[in-house]
Amino acid sequence: MEAVNVKTSKTLSDLSVADLETRLAAWGFKASHAEALLRAYYETGDETGWRDLLLPKGLTERLHEEFLVNRPEQVARQVAEDGTTKLLLKLADGRTVETVMMTDFREDRVAGCVSSQVGCAMGCDFCATTKTGFERNLTAGEIVEQFLALRRAAAEVGKRVQTLVFMGMGEPMLNLENVLEAVRRIAPNELGALGWRQITVSTVGIVPGIEAMAAANLNIHLAVSLHAPDNATRAKLLPMGKRFGVEEILAAADRYQVKTGRPVTIQYCLLKGVNDSPEQARQLAALVGVRRMHVNLLWYNPTGLSLKGVAYERADVETGEAFVEVLRAHGVVAHFRRPRGRDIDAACGQLRRRMIAGVNGGTLGGTDGSQERS
Ligand code: SF4
């Protein structure tokens, strides 16, 4: 389960304020410029804000000599009819990751979704990302750069980023150190100023990761992708389900709730004939009804044959509505996430897979999304 962490060329966003202070002092500049430099960089998502700072001669040139600024490069962009925008970003080592902006979040705000790894090793059978395998963890800076790319994209449509979810490519708990380091730069006022409560980290149920995130004591949200109320069904969908059982995961989520006071979100993607029966809804209700957890139900778009050769289908609308009614009848707070980006490669990993395969050149028109973004 241990993920390989490859350090690429340093981006400016790989540095904390303290790191940059040390660098500036070593170069003979005042360390006090560090926070203003980074804050301006985070505000605009690029270096345009530096023009308003009274910086000593030669400092910005030195920064450019030492670091990659304004990385990664955007190599593909898809915009759906509903405004959902998927960016494919090229990292310094040539690898690519997906970042998604959901523009219909609010009139003047967008929601963002970032990746934590290049590819994914989790092997969730319905997921497009896993089909290209796992390549490496992202650095904290590479995660921050996705946020900054979202900021720039949001500004282009006259909006601001309101929330950020770690639900893109990869399992965040297997790169938790870098994920939390990125959160510590994106959330606080000194740098990203997004706010702690605006950030959600999602997991397939890596219990030690949930514990470590609770121990980090950050005021961020946890989302658990459950997708089945029983271990047998879950293990067929998510290989990690064989390692961590439903009760064990929910017990860890309970402890997270108690420690942080933040209600945990349970994510459940409805798959026709797999996990969408009234009995499974009752089982799910029995698990989460006694907890203060919210259930987000997701519609699924088929992605062709899975790794195991299964052609998963989206649950029927009537079946989905019956499912949510059972949950609500048991007092569970549950709702469907708004379907987004259906006319583009909506599912995580799908645009990247398409580009790797050289199909459709990253243009519009993909119709085979998988689970809807939240
Ligand atoms: S659903 Fe998430 S954890 Fe599972 S394979 Fe896809 S990216 Fe990885």
What features would you describe in this structure?
The chain is globular, with a radius of gyration of 21 Å. The longest helix has 17 residues, at 140-156. The chain has 374 residues and is an alpha/beta fold. A ten-stranded mixed beta sheet has the order 1-2-3-4-7-8-9-10-11-12, with helices on one face. Helix content is 33%, strand content 17%. It has helices at 17-27, 33-44, 59-66, 140-156, 176-186, 207-216, 231-237, 246-260, 278-288, 317-329, 350-357, and strands at 73-79, 85-90, 96-102, 109-113, 117-119, 134-137, 160-166, 199-203, 221-225, 265-269, 294-298, 334-336. Iron/sulfur cluster binds at residues 120, 122, 124, 127, 129-130, 169-171, 204, 348. Iron/sulfur cluster is lined by residues 120, 122, 124, 127, 129-130, 169-171, 204, 348.
- Bound compounds, please? iron/sulfur cluster
What does the oligomeric state look like here? single chain
Radius of gyration over all CA atoms, rounded: 21 Å
Count of discrete alpha- or pi-helical segments spanning 4 or more residues: 11
Shape: globular
- Main β-sheet description: 10 strands, mixed
DSSP strand content = 15-25%
Distance between the termini: 26 Å
Helix/strand-derived class?
alpha/beta
| DSSP, total strands | 12
Low-confidence stretches: 1-8, 359-374
Overall helicity: 25-40%
* Arrangement of strands in the largest sheet: 1-2-3-4-7-8-9-10-11-12
SSE order, one letter for each helix or strand: HHHEEEEEEHEHEHEHHEHEHEH
Mean pLDDT across every amino acid position: 88
Write the layout of secondary structure elements.
Blueprint: H1 17-27, H2 33-44, H3 59-66, E1 73-79, E2 85-90, E3 96-102, E4 109-113, E5 117-119, E6 134-137, H4 140-156, E7 160-166, H5 176-186, E8 199-203, H6 207-216, E9 221-225, H7 231-237, H8 246-260, E10 265-269, H9 278-288, E11 294-298, H10 317-329, E12 334-336, H11 350-357
Parallel strand pairs: 4-7, 7-8, 8-9, 9-10, 10-11, 11-12
Antiparallel strand pairs: 1-2, 2-3, 3-4, 5-6
Helix pairs in contact: 1-2, 4-5, 6-8, 9-10
The structure holds iron/sulfur cluster.
